[in-house]
Amino acid sequence: MKLTDFQEAFPDDTACMRFLEETVWVNGRHCPECGCLNTVPLGGKAAERHLYHCRDCHKQFTVTSGTWLHSRKLPLTKYFEILYYSVNSSFGMASTRISEWTGVSQKSVWKILQAFRELQGFWLTLTDKLTNTVEFDTKYVGGQPRKQKDAEGNRVKNKRGRGTKKQAVFVAAERQGEVRATVVPNEAEDTIRPLAEAQVDPQAHIMSDGDGTFAKIARSFALQSQCSHRDWDFSKDGVHNNTAESFNSWVEHMRDVHFFVSKDHMQRYVNDVMTRWNLRVAVEREVTQKGQRVRKILMEKMPLLDRLRVIFGHAVGCNVRRNRKTGGIMVVA
Ligand SMILES: [Zn+2]
């Protein structure tokens, strides 16, 4: 979606409020306090503020009451503009860049985007599980360690992946489906198993690389297959974990945009990548493959407004508050 089209669709706060009302109140306008549908719009000046009155508990509310967009200092159009830049780009955009383009301070942009990323974590709370073929993998996020020398002055070869200080992310990816990516403190069976069982249907066919932990966990599911990357086996008879690997490369791309991602904020940035991945639709297209025209199913981005609708729709009843103890932010349901 072009920026001019977006600005035309959301010229003022009223348009933004209308969009939120249509998205959040799909099943009818309800009071955030008591949840009842017995509500009426207020007239006069209050109508300009999009205020409604609950006939049951006699409270007044708007569509943003009790959400992260409540008691904001910036106009809603600015929020939408910031989200446009972030959501519409392929792998996100740095808060410094968005700050330059929108005229909002970098600190505010960063805070708004962090709250938005925190909300995108709803994927991990969904109860509908991944089915059919599900691929497991672990992604290690972090930069190259500094060059080191041993006692004799020889260059030490750095280890890769497991056993390094990098942050581990457990990835469960359904083929032509959604992904669940969770930042984990370690890759032990006790850590991964509860996540796998909560996120994946027991009837699923699990595919993974030669990892021993995944092999043990996969036994609890209907079917399991492994391909040993150590033996240079990356795909045989449809057994591979290339879907999970390509999600991992998306996570890697994120680091081209956000040069430094601390471990404390890692899950939020992973949420962002997860949302980009999950909000795609399968489309059949004609493509050229080895000189021949063939029809293929490709995954394409959903239209921008539809993506915003899904994210806002799931954010109903979620409030992001500053956590005084840690100074960070958290979602209050
Ligand atoms: Zn009420």
TrEMBL record:
Residues 156-165 have a biased composition (Basic residues). InterPro entries: Tnp_ISXO2-like, Transposase_Zn_ribbon. Residues 129-278 form the ISXO2-like transposase domain. Transmembrane segments: none annotated. Residues 143-165 are annotated as: Disordered. This is IS1595 family transposase. It comes from Azospirillum lipoferum.
